[in-house]
């Protein structure tokens, strides 16, 4: 016999007055902070001046947050948020009695965040005048550690849970009112993204002359993350009830359908890194 893992963490790290610091927010900040220092080190290694690095993370933060938020609201719950547009942009929820409650941004979609990041980076290179594929690859190397931290935040929130399991590594998510075990899909993803982060750093420092600034790391990041995301969805519960109809009709959910274009782009970039020819011309 074995016993499942009872998962019942306190979502709040500390509370001062009406302010609460939650694990989810802390992991978001931690993931962005680690990515900040990783990209800073890459910029220095590539001898790109600090003045061009300084505005980068403002662009990234705004792009990821807006993209992820809009992605969730418009792709997963359009009916609710189109009738409550303020809640798209405010980290608050309007209660039945008309009062407002601070909830944080309870709903962020990785697909929207990826698209928002791409748009933000395109604007950044146009404004700051730095090589596009150098910037994109640097961000792609750091992205997996942020994704890892976000999934750990989801685990602390007992959200984006897996399907039921009899495996001894199953988690019983007590805060969801359950007494049966599920796959800790958030933990599976966090581990997979951490492994990608280590692989990306290793490849960069081993073969950066051949790969850096070609789009190779962007392709690797997109292909790895969204291929894994596609298959891990088979172990996860759908995020919205209406996705059950989609699964019954075509066998895939919304997250899997949205992953397919990113997989195609990522694989194509691995086969034909778009910045490789330009790098050879410069060399």
From TrEMBL:
Record-linked InterPro entries: Lgt
Gene that specifies this protein: lgt
Binding site for a 1,2-diacyl-sn-glycero-3-phospho-(1'-sn-glycerol): 151
GO biological process: lipoprotein biosynthetic process
EC number assigned by the record: 2.5.1.145
Places the protein is found: Cell membrane
Keywords, sorted A to Z: Cell membrane, Lipoprotein, Membrane, Transferase, Transmembrane, Transmembrane helix
Transmembrane segments: 23-44, 56-82, 102-125, 132-153, 187-205, 212-232, 252-271
Function description: Catalyzes the transfer of the diacylglyceryl group from phosphatidylglycerol to the sulfhydryl group of the N-terminal cysteine of a prolipoprotein, the first step in the formation of mature lipoproteins.
MF annotations from Gene Ontology: phosphatidylglycerol-prolipoprotein diacylglyceryl transferase activity
Domain of life (superkingdom): Bacteria
GO CC list: plasma membrane
Protein's recorded name: Phosphatidylglycerol--prolipoprotein diacylglyceryl transferase
Primary location recorded for the protein, binned into one broad class: membrane
Bilayer topology annotation: Multi-pass membrane protein
Family per similarity comment: Belongs to the Lgt family.
Annotated metabolic or biological route of this protein: Protein modification; lipoprotein biosynthesis (diacylglyceryl transfer)
């Amino acid at each position: 016999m074995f016993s499942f893992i009872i998962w019942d963490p306190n979502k709040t790290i500390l509370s001062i007055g009406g302010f609460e610091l939650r694990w989810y927010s802390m992991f978001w900040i931690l993931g962005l902070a680690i990515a900040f220092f990783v990209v800073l080190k890459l910029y220095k290694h590539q001898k790109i001046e600090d003045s061009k690095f300084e505005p980068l993370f403002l662009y990234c933060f705004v792009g990821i947050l807006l993209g992820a938020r809009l992605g969730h609201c418009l792709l997963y719950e359009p009916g609710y948020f189109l009738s409550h547009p303020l809640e798209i942009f405010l980290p608050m929820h309007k209660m039945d009695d008309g009062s407002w409650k601070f909830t944080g941004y309870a709903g962020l979609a990785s697909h929207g965040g990826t698209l928002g990041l791409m748009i933000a980076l395109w604007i950044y290179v146009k404004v700051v005048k730095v090589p596009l594929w150098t910037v994109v690859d640097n961000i792609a190397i750091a992205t997996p550690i942020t994704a890892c931290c976000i999934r750990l935040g989801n685990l602390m929130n007992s959200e984006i849970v897996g399907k039921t399991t009899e495996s001894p590594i199953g988690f019983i998510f007590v805060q969801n009112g359950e007494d049966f075990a599920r796959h800790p899909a958030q933990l599976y993803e966090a581990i997979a993204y951490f492994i990608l982060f280590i692989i990306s750093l290793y490849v960069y420092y081993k073969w950066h002359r051949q790969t850096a600034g070609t789009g190779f790391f962007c392709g690797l990041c997109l292909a790895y993350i969204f291929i894994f995301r596609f298959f891990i969805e088979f172990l996860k519960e759908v995020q919205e009830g209406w996705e059950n109809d989609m699964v019954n009709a075509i066998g895939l959910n919304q997250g899997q359908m949205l992953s397919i274009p990113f997989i195609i782009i990522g694989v194509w970039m691995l086969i034909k890194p778009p910045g490789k020819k330009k790098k050879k011309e410069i060399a």
